[in-house]
Amino acid sequence: MSEQTPDRENGNNREDTPQKGGNMIAVRQSVGFSGPLPPPEILERYEKILPGAAERIISMAEKQSEHRKQLESIVIGTDTANSRMGLWFGLIIGLAGLAVSALVAIWGKEWAGTIIGSATLVSLVGTFIYGSQQRKQERGGRREEIEKIESGKKG
Known about the structure:
Strand order of the largest sheet: 1-2
Number of domains: 1
Number of helices: 3
Distance between the termini: 58 Å
Strand content: under 5%
Radius of gyration: 34 Å
Helix content: over 70%
Order of helices and strands: EEHHH
């Protein structure tokens, strides 16, 4: 049993079941955009539907941008403070290791003092080298991302 519905174009009734040999085509379109603001065409449609909507959307994007900048500033400040604190703790640990090494050597255990002092220095130097390489790799990755973005804009 099929349901009869009025044909909107000419007022005739039609069946909602496909006819024999008929093909049904479904089309789905998806439109997307990237960034804080939609394309001007979409902003214009918003403005037509609700006057003042485009200004509100732009204002919202500006506020979001300002918020993101504030968060980035906080993160940078915190990273700087953590880096400084790490340097101070590294200095304290290094000095403590060398002091223990010297005390052990003074107490007659020269080999133990040498091993402790060497281990302290090697660990500190290794940490600095590792950190330097990590920063270098991070900067290289960022440089590659920027180059990809710039080459995409040119093409």
